[in-house]
Amino acid sequence: MTDSDFTVIENEWIPLGDGTHLAARIWMPEGAEADPVPAVLEFLPYRKRDGTSPRDESTYPTFARNRIAGVRVDIRGSGESEGVIDGEYTPLELANAAEVIGWIASRPWCNGSVGMMGISWGGFNCLQTAALRPPALKAVISIASTVDRYNDDIHYKNGCHLYSNLSWAANMLAYQSRSPDPALVGDRWKAMWLERLENEPFFLEDWLAHQRRDAFWKHASICEAFDDVTIPALVIAGWADGYRNTPWKAVEGLGDKAKAIVGPWIHKYPHFAWPKPRADFLNEAVRWWNRWLKGEQNGAENLPQVRAYIMEEARPAPWRDFDPGRWIALPHWSKPEMLRQCLDATGCLVPGDGVAGAPGDIVLKSPLDTGTTSGEYFTLKPDAQMAGDQRFDDGASLCFETQPMEADLELLGQPVLTLRLASDAAIANFVARLVDVHPDGTAYRIAFGVLNLTHRESDEFPAAMPPGEKVEVSLTLDACGYRLKSGHRLRLALSSAYWPMILPPPSDAALTIDRASLRLDLPLLGTHEGIDMPEPADPDPLPKYITRVPGRTERSVSRNLTDNRTDYRIFEDRGCEEHPQTGLAVREVRDETWSISPDDPLSMTGRSLWTCEMERPGWFVRTVIDTALSCTATDWKLSATVTAYDGDEKVSEKSFAKTIARDFM
Asked: Quick one: pLDDT at residue 502?
């Protein structure tokens, strides 16, 4: 594929020192051999040929037209790359990334300066690779990522077991079990495919084997040693996504090396994310790369350390196209001033550090199916994946509210809840949510936090709750940027369950809360300046493919009152789309169901099914992935089966099954 300003190299083989060849798609500026250019690497397992091609084709042409080469590489064992993947952010993966950077820098078309960027996996590993300090890597852009693999990813959160652990393990099996494209790798496609099918791991086995924050999770968590990252980092996140804490941790840990942008978005690049308003990410990125890869004196280093969208009067909806609010900037980030709230004698939230006559103990024991309006941890669509109206879950929670606000209250940062409580079981979960209650009663979740109470003092060394004994607990909620309008009320909702987002502990614990001890510290926005944040010139930048079968998405909750069982189902058929240039057609269908009896934590089950198809005339392959998770009081039980078909012929079937002891979960 060519453009007047650049050429697309559909597949370039990058040799590694161990003899493996990784597959790259490169957007090469015209004349780079004579006038070398910098390059930007994105290093992912999500298949450049089909998985990420729409967003790649919306991003890298702009870079190339600005004389920045784009190099999109499939990591080992994914897409067209040789070998077999060995896990998530492993030492081998990061060493390969550093080796690829060296290869890029040595090309005659490269000026020796390389940037690295990505969203989610690519956002993670660009920061992790930066900590290895490959000499040619000069700057990174990290979107929807983490600096703490244990607490701010899809596995665990403050010791709570996220249901995304199974969901994402199934997703990764679905990606890794797919064939390379014969149009790129030739006749060896089937041998490469069968090697993957025979040797690919089931990631959940590793993730469940490490339920506390041990060396497995400390590896590649740059918060362990922020000083290892010495290059500039632009860190971007969205309020509608689960990765909203990273910008604050990055600017606090990396200092002046880091700049942060937080918008209203889901887990997508800002130039095509929802809810709107979007941001002109492409020009933002070009300016960043020009400064740090070309040495252009364009003032990127003087940008405000934090730019954030302060939301207001947000409403849950079946589809969130636009969220009201405004952009603000902070030249330098510092810990915010906190506004303390406590409970008065009537149980209302009021400013202050304590009120005489505040109420005493109250028991909290939520039904185990509390949480069905929690939404997805990481949101890929602005629909039912986002948190819904909280009134349903609030009805199963312990709620405290302010009086209607007399003046607007503006927040930016992470709220902190402190209180004393006791549990009648050794292991218990505790959940807190901040909710904007509109005058008409609509309840929008501003922020939330979850805590496995055995992790109250340490994620590395959890300790059982002393039955019946009150202990002080501090829970830091996820970050928020929100303006609570006058006339609205702030609600604090507490629950002992948040299913299916977090899975239940072995016992259906009751918590006794000392209401007089409750302190809620709210991070005030403080001094700031209003700014304009340019939106992309193209409101619809993703390329259009040929739709063979339209997609369909459904999320539903059913409650069988006779059997006392609740089912939460996710069905997503992404449809079948054909790339107009390559002729490759791809379809993915996910069918996932979580079930629980509201009074029996050991009844919890999860099952995630994926069907993935690839075809072009005369060639059709399909993989079917069936994964499951259940539990006893002492163990997690997990299983998976991957079945592969070449046409109608079954060519491979592999099963995984394991029982792993529960470790304070």
From this structure: 98
